[in-house]
Amino acid sequence: MAQTCYRHPDRETGVSCSSCGRPICPDCMTPSPVGMRCPECASQRTKIVRGVGETPLSSQAPATFVLIALNVAAFLAEVASASGGFGVGNSTAVGNFGLFGVAVAEGEWYRLVTGGFLHASLTHIAFNMFALFFLGRMLEPSIGTLRFVFLYLASLLAGAFGALLLSGSETFTIGASGAIFGIFGAAFVIAKGRGVDAVAGTIGLILVLNLAISFGTPRISLGGHLGGLAAGVICALAIIAGDRGAFGPRRITAELIVMTAVGVVSVVGSLAIA
Question: In sequence order, which residues have a C-beta less than 8 Å from that of residue 235 and are 6 or more positions away?
Fold first, then answer.
């Protein structure tokens, strides 16, 4: 049975206050560095210290930490299969699992996913994982782990589609940037849609700066960034529509269907281009 907001019993929610654990709906959520809080906990001015037995940070955003671990594990596999320290240019992992349209056309569809877990350098993965750590801890508790995972995967697949569309099928592309841009776009839209303008403004500024870098820096997959961003925005708009009652009582199912559709269209588009 779905839980309901403790202040609005007629509203189902999958989010709980990161401090007291009570279920809260979007109207009752207040963003904090450690997740969403209810109005009462958000108004507390005393310092809250986590004691023995309280919920650890990783359990508030489990998918975020699992995704970071998967990306780090994949990068270590790249390093292990290459020569020359942290250089992965000649890594067999990249050659076998990176996004390469020609290989995708030959039946290696898994590259549409695996390419999004590989990185070109230590700096590349460090930047992406820092962004995922920052955004994931904020976004995942506010929309729930299931929707966060669907959003991430939809953005990753859309990033692969965008990369193939703009870079062609004979270019190798790796990196979680498509998924990261999807989370950036979703976080901005959701914060704006829920009236958290200060958070939306900060995320929007960072997003614009990153887009400027994407347009102005060679050898960056602009298509991957734009594809992931577009998917994240679409998924977030579905969540906001659910917040406003557009999908009725089965809103989460409807939102997941929209996200799945984004992923399916991305895969079909990628196969058509490859």
Answer: 150, 151, 154, 155, 182, 186, 255, 258, 259, 262
Contact 273, 165 (CB under 8 A): yes
- Measured between its terminal Cα atoms, the distance across the chain in Å is 44
* CA geometry: angle 82, 87, 90, nearest 5 deg: 45
98 residue type, one letter: G
pLDDT digits (tens, 9 = 90+) for 73-93: 999 999 888 776 566 767 888
- Residue 231 token pair: 């998917």
> Which pair of tokens denotes residue 157?
């697949």
Estimate to the nearest angstrom the gap between the alpha carbon of 136 and the chain centroid: 7
**Which residue positions in the chain have pLDDT lower than 50?**
46-49, 51-54
Q: Taking the mean position of all CA atoms in its chain, how far away is CA 152?
A: 4
CA dihedral (181, 187, 190, 192) positive or negative: negative
Contacts of 153 (CB under 8 A, 6+ apart): 113, 179, 263
Can you tell me the distance from the alpha carbon of 28 to that of 211, in angstroms, rounded to the nearest whole number? 32
- Are 166 and 192 in contact, with CB atoms under 8 Å apart? no
What pLDDT is attached to residue 89? 64
Task: Name the strand (E) or helix (H) holding 36.
Answer: strand 35-37
Contact 242, 254 (CB under 8 A): yes
Entry pTM: 0.81
